[in-house]
Amino acid sequence: MPIVQRIMGSGIPAQAAQNINGDWSGALTATGSSQATALLLGSVVNSVTTTAASTGVQLPATSPGDWVYVHNSGANTLSVYGQTGDAIQSGAANAAFSVAANKGALFFRVSTTLWGAILTA
User: Fold this and answer.
1) How many whole angstroms separate alpha carbon 80 and alpha carbon 49?
2) pLDDT for 30-44, tens place per residue?
3) Cα(69)–Cα(117) distance, integer angstroms
4) Which of 13, 27, 39, 108 has an alpha carbon 20 to 30 Å from 47's alpha carbon atom?
5) What is the model's pTM?
6) Are 62 and 55 a contacting pair, CB within 8 Å?
């Protein structure tokens, strides 16, 4: 993964360098208890700091080959949903993928309806 300052050092403007590298959102609060009511993520790297019981986030609309990282530093397990019709790993379409408290997961778009996931230790 490139580092923004290095990209800018080659003459690329700051905004373009950030778009190449990927953006970050922190201090997010998980919402809702279903795919329809979960917080829609808007960044490549996401830090969810508040996770009430049974709350979740929804991965953004992306293309195959794209990735999104979600870190859960909240007190409860975080439910992560794909877009409508998406499955994560071997789960059913529209089902939640669980990320335990103080863990993270790298989600990568395998196809237009499937996400892969790698959990942190």
Assistant:
1) 14
2) 999 999 999 999 999
3) 9
4) 13
5) 0.90
6) no
